[in-house]
Amino acid sequence: MDRERLLAGAAVLIVGIALLGAVVAPGVLADPSDEGPIRPGHVDIVDTAVSTGEITGQTAELTLHTTLRHRGNPTENVSVRFRAIDTQSGLLKAEKRVAVGTMRSDGEQEVSATLAVEREGGYQLEAVVYRNDTRVDSFSRTVRGVSALTPGYAESNVSFTEDPVLDPISVSVVEANEDRTTLELGAWLTAAGPNQGNDLSLTFIVRQAESNVVASRSTVDAGDIREGRSRMVTTEVSVPSEYNYYIDAVLTRDDVMIDTASGVVNLDPTETIDANQTEQEVKFDAGEFADTPEERPDRDQRATEAETVTETPGFGPVVAVVALLAAALLARWRR
Q1: In whole angstroms, what is the distance from residue 52 CA to residue 239 CA?
Q2: b or e along 30-67 (b: 16 or more beta carbons within 10 Å of the residue's beta carbon)?
Q3: Residues contacting 132, CB < 8 A, separation 6+
Q4: Which residues pair with 57 in a beta bridge?
Q5: What is the pTM of this model?
Q6: Regarding the domain delimited by 156-266, which CATH topology (the fold level of the hierarchy) does it fall under?
Q7: What are phi and psi of 5, to 5 degrees?
Q8: What is the pLDDT of residues 303-331, one digit of tens each?
Q9: How confident is the model at residue 202 (pLDDT cuts 50, 70, 90)?
Q10: CATH 2.60.40.10: which residues of the chain?
């Protein structure tokens, strides 16, 4: 009898412990195979870097390197959308979406995409992270001066020497008379890298300042310049005397323009010009001078009225004399 009571009490105790465990920790008695819905982990953007790819005369490749950070449970169907928006017009210029898939482990992962845009102006680059087509994070960065990126065909180790004291172009008078003046033009070139060939040419263009007409042009072989060295390249030109001129120097390699410089020469004793003189660009809008169909009737009417007034003779000298005689006769008759 005591043994049966002891077993019954033990059973009651076990059942009580099980019920208490179910209340305190509901998952203890749950079926391990039935996990139910799991909340996906957290995904966000740590940072985004921008690098350049292939640069051509018209387009530039901008590569966005976005670092994603994942924490917690596995996150499925992750993707990143990359966009390039023109900062001036606000128009979308390029877009690409990259599928990342499922992110399982805690840590960081880089996702990259290359966008091809026009080589001008600036762009706002965006990276947007999606989880199951729901936006979870975004990042943006602005790049400017895309036009300053040099195409591969225009890259060169030689350029005009930049010096705070010396002008890029030097001018000296070789011979002068009343009609013509012979000038020696020179430019300093510096090689910043290893030799890339002996096909360098330097062209000097002399433009009359007032008319912008090319007065003389001369092309000379720049020769071979070793790395880290500088060389003065010179040539002579003949121009009409007593005028002021702008001088443009164009450095080319294999018929590709790689650098330019400018200078001036003042041969007019009454007036001088400056190399840093700028010209203001004025936008011409033909619509300011064109007549619209709605405006033409009013304009034609005003023109007709003006012609009518112009053709009216008014009081000439003959009419004035007749009026005076009539007034005199009327006064005499009254007497």
Answers
A1: 45
A2: eeeeeeeeeebbbbebeebeeeeeebeeebbbbebebb
A3: 76, 77
A4: none
A5: 0.53
A6: Immunoglobulin-like (2.60.40)
A7: -65, -40
A8: 333 333 334 344 445 444 445 555 555 55
A9: very high
A10: 42-148, 156-266
Alpha-carbon separation of residue 283 from 25, 280, 286 (angstroms) = 78, 10, 10
CB 183 within 8 A of CB 263: no
Give the max Cα distance, the chain: 172
Residues contacting residue 52 through CB under 8 Å, at least 6 positions apart: 60, 61, 62, 63, 149
Rg of the chain in Å (alpha carbons): 43
Q: What SS3 state is found at 140? A: strand
CA distance 16 to 5: 16
pLDDT of 10 reads 59
Please tell me which of 129-138, 195-204, 290-299 the model is most confident about, judged by mean pLDDT: 129-138
**Is a pLDDT exceeding 50 seen at residue 32?**
no
Measured in residues, the chain has a length of: 335
Q: Locate 176 and state its tokens.
A: 């002068």
Helix (H, G, I), strand (E, B) or coil at 2: helix
Q: What is d(CA 134, CA 81) in angstroms, rounded to the nearest whole number?
A: 12
Residue 292 DSSP one-character state: P
Write out the E strands in 162-287: 169-176, 180-191, 200-208, 214-221, 230-240, 244-253, 256-266
Write down the CATH number for the domain with range 42-148: 2.60.40.10
